[in-house]
Each structure stands twice: as C-alpha cells, then as structure tokens.
C-alpha cells in the first residue's frame, strides 16, 4: 500500500492494538498504575471505564503483561451471558477439567484459587465489556470477590467497560457491587498536545519522519474529539489519499476528505478547528 512510499516499516495506524507501539498518555498510564498497584496490594476489585475507542483493550493487554509474572491471570475478552457461562469460562482459563459439572464449578474454581495462592501466584480475573453483562452475572462477579482466606482475597478482579457500566452500577440493585470497588480509573479523550505527540510517535515507531503538519494534526484532533480509534482511522485515510495523489507529506486536502469520509468524525469549519 503506502508504506514504502512514505518510508514506513509497517502500517502505523492499524486498528489492532499493539503493545509495542504504546504511547503513554496520562489517563492510560494512570489506569495501568492503578490496576497494577491495586492487585499488588490485594485490593480486590478495580473498575476501568472509557468511551468506545479510547484504548481499553490496549490498557487491558498492558495490565496483563505487567501482572503476568506474579499472578495467575484469567482474561475474559467477551461478556458472559449467564452465571454458568461465566464460571465455565473462568474454569477453562484455570485449566479445570471440562468434565466438572456445572454445580461443582464454583467449588473447583475456589480450589484452583487456593492452590494458586499457595504458590504465591494469586488469581486475577480481567473482564472486558462488563457493561454488557446481565445483572445476575455482575452479582456472580461480586460473589467471586468474596472468596478469601483469613489473610487475603483468593480472587481479585479488574472490570473494563464503557461509561454505561457506571450507569448500571448507580442503580440501587447494584449497590453491593459498587461498594466492593476499591479503585476506579477513567480513560479520557486525548488533548491536542497528546494527539499531536501520539501521531508523531506512531510514525516514528515505524521509521518515518513526521508526515502531518501541526494544522493537519489539529484538524484530526478536532474531528476525532481525541478518540484514539478515530485518530487511527483519519490518519490512515489521510495517508492513503495523499499517497494516491503522489504527495510525500499528508496534504490538508487529504485530511479534509478523510474527515468527510468518516461517519463518526466531527465535521467542522476552519474556525472551529482554531478554537477546538
């Protein structure tokens, strides 16, 4: 495609999260530090929320990487629809025999967690898309957090979800789960300074010099509203359009067309771009 044209080693704005290209914006670093510190202190339950496209998957993968040596990790990337389904997913990740019947799964999970704690590698469960889980599954998550010895929690949990999760937790029926959350973190949209540095970082990681002018990056920031996934889409389209016209840097015209072609991008005037 356009990689050789711009001197790139690989596509810099792929939508697949790559931890090797992580750029530490403040809310992401804060969320990672919160999760890791809470687990190391045995705090039990942590919540991380962020709008669609703000980098929850990237943060989740980096937390997994940071905890991998000291904890037994269970990663559930898709929401369970039933309590039995949740327990089966956890059991599979813990290597529990698939022949264990549904009524004995929770006990088997507890025994696996006791064994992991004895080996000084306690269990941490990371659940993504938690806002989509039914109430009974959220309650089952709370009950998993109740498994403990006299000295420590047997299972700790990190919940990742969209802002709708906060709305769910504000309901009266969810008050017990809400009270169990020790720490929370929020992934916020990038500022213009963060967006500008992020774009340059992604290009430099793939061997290219800066290809976007400050003005082009500002238009992308305003259009994306600081959402990393939209930044990626707009940058990719801008590079593709500039390549098609034989340009060696991204043109203002290409950025305008990329914004127009992206449904979720904020359409804006030059004056709006100036004021943000």
From TrEMBL:
Top-level lineage group: Bacteria
One term of GO molecular function: ATP hydrolysis activity
Pfam family, one: AAA_22
InterPro entries (alphabetical): AAA_22, ExeA_AAA_ATPase_DNA-bind, P-loop_NTPase
CDD domains, per the entry: AAA
Domain ORC1/DEAH AAA+ ATPase: 42-169
PANTHER family per UniProt: GENERAL SECRETION PATHWAY PROTEIN A-RELATED (PTHR35894:SF7)
The name this protein goes by in its record: AAA family ATPase
């Amino acid at each position: 495609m356009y990689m050789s044209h711009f001197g790139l080693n690989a596509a810099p704005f792929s939508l697949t999260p790559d931890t090797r290209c992580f750029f530490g914006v403040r809310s992401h670093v804060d969320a990672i530090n919160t999760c890791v510190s809470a687990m190391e202190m045995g705090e039990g339950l942590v919540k991380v929320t962020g709008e669609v496209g703000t980098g929850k998957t990237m943060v989740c993968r980096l937390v997994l990487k940071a905890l991998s040596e000291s904890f037994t990790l269970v990663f559930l990337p898709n929401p369970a629809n039933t309590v039995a389904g949740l327990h089966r997913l956890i059991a599979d990740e813990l290597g529990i025999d698939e022949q264990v019947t549904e009524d004995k799964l929770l006990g088997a999970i507890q025994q696996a967690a006791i064994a992991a704690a004895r080996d000084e590698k306690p269990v941490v469960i990371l659940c993504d898309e938690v806002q989509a889980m039914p109430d009974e599954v959220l309650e089952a998550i709370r009950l998993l957090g109740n498994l403990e010895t006299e000295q420590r929690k047997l299972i700790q949990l990190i919940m990742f979800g969209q802002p709708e999760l906060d709305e769910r937790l504000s309901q009266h029926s969810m008050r017990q789960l809400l009270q169990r959350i020790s720490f929370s973190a929020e992934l916020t949209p990038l500022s213009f300074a963060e967006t500008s540095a992020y774009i340059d970082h992604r290009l430099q990681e793939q061997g290219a010099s800066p290809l976007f002018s400050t003005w082009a990056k500002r238009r992308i920031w305003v259009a994306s509203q600081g959402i990393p996934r939209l930044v990626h889409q707009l940058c990719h389209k801008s590079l593709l359009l500039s390549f098609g016209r034989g340009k060696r840097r991204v043109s203002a015209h290409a950025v305008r067309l990329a914004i127009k072609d992206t449904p979720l991008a904020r359409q804006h005037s030059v004056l709006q771009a100036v004021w943000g």
